[in-house]
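Worked example

This section walks through a single chain of length 317. The input is the sequence exactly as stored; nothing has been trimmed or padded.
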Amino acid sequence: MIDEPLHFAPFLKSVIWGGDKIAAYKGIDTDRHDIGESWEVSAVEGCVSVVDRGTFAGRTLTDLIGEFGTALLGEDVMRKTGGRFPLLIKLIEARDDLSIQVHPDDKLAMERHHSVGKTEMWHIIDSTPEAKIYLGLKEEITPQEYERRVADNSIMDVIDCYDSKKGDTFFIPAGRVHSIGAGNFLAEIQQSSDITYRIYDYDRRDKDGNPRELHTAEARDAIDYTVEADYRTTPDGDILARCDYFDVRRMELSPRGKALSHERDSFTVVMCLHGAATLDYGDCRSIELAKGDTLLFPASIRHIEARGEGEILSIQA
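Given that input, the structure is written out below as tokens.
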């Protein structure tokens, strides 16, 4: 029986565009100043989350799925994924601009990598006044023009750009070119895939002075060349994003408890963005969630109420 929420040790990723906000946000004492990502819940090979407290401390997420199956994932998720954990949930800090990139959809990712694709969303936790999000094409181009613009370093001329501020949400379906600009600190919810095609990287060099690899040819066939008038996401009440892969909702907390309002037959991941939360569940049980912390509630826990002062995200597959 699995009837308690799971807390995992985060994977802290050092990258050339990272900084020191994630560690401070999560209350982690470290002298590292290049942390760009904290993988909060992951089943990606080589970075599988490990429970770090409670009854199941020391067990991996995939190990627990193997033992508890439907009770952890939910019947619908189990049927859709065949027992694979479908999401990857991160915190990201961009001290510098990330590369312009694109991710393949399910069909292309399966053909090339025997993997699912990568649809994702970003919710801005904090940002500097000049922070930008680069998202989508602002004019029609052909695959041939795309390759020419990558070669002559003019690709940025056709990529749309938006100011970003605390509370903004951006939904990025597979195939849409995008980049997180410097000064953004955000939560990312995505399919469980680590496949990225890098299109443009400002001629940056790695720690050894070599240009970072581009994936021009791979990206050409992955890009959705459709142009939209506006790539920003307008929330529908508390719903930030809802698609075949995830349902993400934002809740402002109050001292009076409020039920998390998902309808899917799924596990529920709760991330505390600001303040602190008390989560009531089961038979008069409760657990505290501090700012920057993430919990996974198994599907066997059907009713969760949140109270406190602050803001949380609740996520289902």
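What to look for: The CA atoms of residues 16 and 34 lie 7 Å apart.
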